[in-house]
Design goal:
Chain lengths: 128, 128
Amino acid sequence: MKYQFQPIGHIKTPYNTIDECPRNINKNAAPCHIFIKEEYIDGLFGLNSGDPILVLYWMDKAKFSHLTLPSRKTGEIKGIFALRTPQRPNPIGAAVVTIEDIIEGEILVRGLDCLNMTPLLDIKPAMK
Amino acid sequence: MKYQFQPIGHIKTPYNTIDECPRNINKNAAPCHIFIKEEYIDGLFGLNSGDPILVLYWMDKAKFSHLTLPSRKTGEIKGIFALRTPQRPNPIGAAVVTIEDIIEGEILVRGLDCLNMTPLLDIKPAMK
């Protein structure tokens, strides 16, 4: 059985090629802008600057091919579910970041590691 | 544009109705079994007991209808992206749990809050 989802917005980052993307979430990295589609903006009510959020996105340029890969940190061969590589059956990215600013359907955060124009799947308050 | 994903397995929990599900992730709650499809089992290589993992799943019984809802904790009205409710445009659940045991394609964890037979989307090492 296959399931479908529809992006609720997109993420603008300074990274236009995979080589430019940072290898990990880094809280001091470049500012990124999360844009929510107009029909979902009311769903942001109650989110404020300073709130930690879990951002889920679809790394649509990643190609899944192997079940094991070398770790980018250590070179050790590991299963893809033991790695954070985008090359996985369902390329969902997950990052906890802090809201720096939020105006209407636009959220400013810092340090996402995904490509410019990555489709946005969901935003939730991060668990403390 | 719509995107498709295919479950990589499923989660067995003791909860067969939404009323039975705990309201939150609780590390001391009931044991749950995560089953990976046979074709993906090699992707688990390198995951061990004691490792914290981020589990992503699809809460396929949740119905999305409203952009704001009362918080289950406080009753305060909030946007769904400021809440952890399953009633959201893309009902992806996200939980950090610890592997208690892992044998072949079966992972024992404790404290997931989802229904029995929930489709599994992804497993990643949790960020420390």
